Amino acid sequence: MKKNTKSNKSPAPATKSDPIKLAGKTVKAVSAAAKPAKKIAIKPVAKPTKAAAPKAPAKSAAKAKITAIAAAPVVTTITALIDIGFGNALYLRGEGAGLSWDRGVLMNCVANDTWSMELGEASRPIIYKFLVNDLTWSAGEDYLVNSGANLNIVPTF
Length: 157
Hints:
Elements (H helix, E strand, L loop, with lengths): L18 E4 L2 E4 L47 E6 L8 E6 L9 E2 L1 E4 L2 E6 L6 E7 L3 E2 L5 E3 L4 E4 L4
Parallel strand pairs: 3-11
Antiparallel strand pairs: 1-2, 3-7, 4-5, 4-8, 6-7, 8-9, 8-10
């Protein structure tokens, strides 16, 4: 039986004065107290795998719920900045977004001199005119606004 001549003990650490041969050149070792050794993490490279074939959907009693995201509604806001006097109301008539030239839609009084209305989405520009008490038409040409706009107007009568 042969005895193992190799020792399981690791060699003593090199000191600053001990020379080390590295790639055929003699280099002086640096003590561990002078510079800490950097640890380098070595990550294994994953072997490329073949793409898995798509799995057929599992047949089960529970079905996946599909939720649809609703688009935000397009709102057109028309605001009239006018004081038409106590007891009077401001109406809007026109074409598009639910307006009609035959019958006016009451606007909301949000302040003494501010009337506002929100109209739904329209595929074409909205044409409209203001009326006091749905009887007296505003002066001048018809107003025009694109769907989704916020408009402040000072109408005259």
